[in-house]
Amino acid sequence: MINAYTGTQIRAAEAHLVEAGHGPALMRAAAHGLAQHTMNLLRESFGGVYGARVAALIGSGNNGGDALFAMARLAKRGVACTAILMAPKVHAEGMAAFQRAGGKVVEAGREGPAGSRGRNRRWHRATETLNGVDLVIDAVLGTGARGSVSLPTIPNDMLVVACDLPSGVDADTGNAPNGVLQADLTVTFGALKTGLTVGAGHLLSGRIEVVDIGLGPRLGEPDLFVMESSDASRLFPRPERSAQKYSRGVLGLIAGSDEYPGAAVLSATAAVNTGVGMLRTVAPETVRPLLSQAVPEAVTAQDAEAHVQAWAVGPGIGEDADQIAATRAAISSGLPCVVDASALAGLSQEQGHSKLVLTPHAGELTDLLRRAGMRLDRESVEQNPVRWARWAAVAYSSVVLLKGPATVCVAPDGPTIVSNNGGPELATAGSGDVLTGVLGAMLAVDEGTDSSTRSRVQLAATSAHVHAEAGSRIVAERRPHAEALARSVNGR
């Protein structure tokens, strides 16, 4: 897994080195990495570096200094470089190096009000400059800055490289105001920032390259971990060679209602494709024939007293009184249990325990936290998903899998793991039902080998990663719907 740190942690680690007199070395290392990755992108996009045209939006801080030194390196490689100054004062040494290398300077300042002719003229000139380049480097704000930034008009097809992070993104939380420039590539320094892995920061950062500038042991414990495909493969639960259907994992699934019969089919299909040894389903009589036809492996169970090793409850149960009663029994059984959809709406703090895995989206998490006495809205959750997922995990004494563009998985007493390989194909009705089936199957298989909270948060992140990989397959096969997603789950 990839370690990620908050911007606050990064700045603290840098401060120790700066105080020891290593500030210039840090900037040289950052500038070298930014220049190298920018040249790599130019080669990928245009076949070479010499003769390319690059502009950089330069702010007043060290981020702007990093970009100026990087632009000086690019100019020496035959790149036509222009620094667009977004502040009245910029890094002096960086500017001197840039001008020695032959770089061109355009002053932009900030767009002024009506009648501010000189300022608006400079702003217009900056926009004209950007219309004539191949790539722009965004170096207006760094990790210590937050909030909106006013930028000249950037052509829609322009390649954008963010220096350390897209200007305006909060390096601690991933929150970003409207108008932040979407990057094709973010070259970040020291370590991966939490704000680039979740929330709007994840969506705005494009491909991320980390440049080692020697912060190493000064960083301390990571804020969170980002799952990679190799981690998902390693953590995916596999039965022993001697396993039979009962020891391989028996999952109980409480899903479906007269109103939402398809949810049961999607969850059941995903569970059997994930590789559970046996699936016992609790569903209304009207839903059972549909389940039997679509998932013949599923065995009908009458209630939550069925012999299982884990439960998955909630998809499509709606307001069905019998399904709600069965869900409550499963949650209180003491077995590992995925709690999704309508089952979350009836969950109380008193019902929470360490073997539950709650799978809310931002709106459902907001509701859970409000019932725990917290005053917040959905926007607050979306602006700081890691913080509020952690609060919910503690409030309900459970593992929480917060769904979104980046899936945040956290336990009250364990690590925080982010799985962010998913795409927009997962944003479809029924996708969450599929995820519930995948995770339920994993919990059933895993229960016989490792029943720790740490294991459950790892499995939650693994299920999200596997779910997203199935999404990539249905895109490749041009089958962008939940049924195809459920059938594309790979039991490895």
Describe it.
- The chain is α/β, with parallel strands linked by helices.
- Helix content is 40%, strand content 16%.
- The protein has helices spanning 7-19, 23-46, 62-76, 92-100, 117-130, 199-204, 229-235, 261-274, 288-294, 321-331, 342-345, 362-371, 378-383, 385-395, 431-446, 453-476, 482-488, and strands at residues 2-5, 53-58, 80-85, 104-107, 135-139, 159-163, 185-189, 192-193, 207-211, 224-226, 250-254, 278-282, 299-300, 310-313, 337-339, 356-358, 399-402, 407-410, 416-419.
- The strands form 2 sheets. A 12-stranded mixed sheet has the order 8-1-10-19-18-17-16-15-14-11-12-13, sandwiched between helices. It has a 7-stranded parallel sheet with strand order 4-3-2-5-6-7-9, with helices on both faces.
- Strand 12, helix 9 and strand 13 form a beta-alpha-beta unit.
- The protein is elongated.
- Residues 111-115 have low confidence and may be disordered.
